[in-house]
Input
Amino acid sequence: MVGTYYTIIQSFKTAQDGGRQEQAIVEGQEGWKEEGVSGHLNWTFRNDTDPFAKKDWYDIKAPSVFNTRNVGKTLVTRTQGTKIASDGLKGRVLTCSLADLQNNEADAHRNIKLRVEDVQGRNCLTNFYGMDLTTDKLRSMIRKWQTLIEAHVDVKTTDGYVLRMFAISFTKKRQGQVKKTAYARSSQIRQIRKKMVEIMTREATSCDLKELVGKFIPEAIGKEIEKSCQGIYPLQNTFVRKVKLLRAPKFDINKLMEVHGDYSAEVSEKIERPAEEIVGAAPEEAAE
Output
């Protein structure tokens, strides 16, 4: 077996440092390697085959709603027999920073999850799978002298995706307030939470998934919640904290191509063969 060695290793302790040492004495022929022929012997198996020799790199393509389309690369074992490489790629979930997808460091507090839906050549076409705030951003917003308000709701988009959305917000001092605390009453918290659920439901059920992701990027839903709750209690740091994909409709390649914009034109192009070439080839085939 080329590149494979069966190794005998001599392990012994020295009186000076008490550590284990290994000493190679003779290297045999035909891939056999003999080490340490005296003392305590251990048989080990070493495979020198490069594990990357049987793998291929695939490009990851983000939906067209993001500014950066080439997210990165992923590795998969190439097709062997009945084991297809594309089957190992479909369903992979990738986590990307929104700052990389939008080329804007101001969005570094947001993580986006993308799932591979289809493979075209060496390109993996992905779709939105979830969203979350980074841990450091979430912990930096929690402080004393304010009230934390959270809400969640299950919504269904017009194209059949069922999502669970989580919102978070914090109270702040009123303009000109001297008192250092900004605690909301229980009745105010219930009103604000009800407003959160209403706004998230309205914004999500009136559009498809692609348009909804477009609302997540500029924090449009969080700003709408702050504006609507201004009369109840002033709010700050209002975000859609997390989005989970609960259920997706049956896979449709045409809808995926719409999510990726004009990507279908880049993948393949139909070429019409001239009619004279087809007619001219007939006599040659007949002569044969």
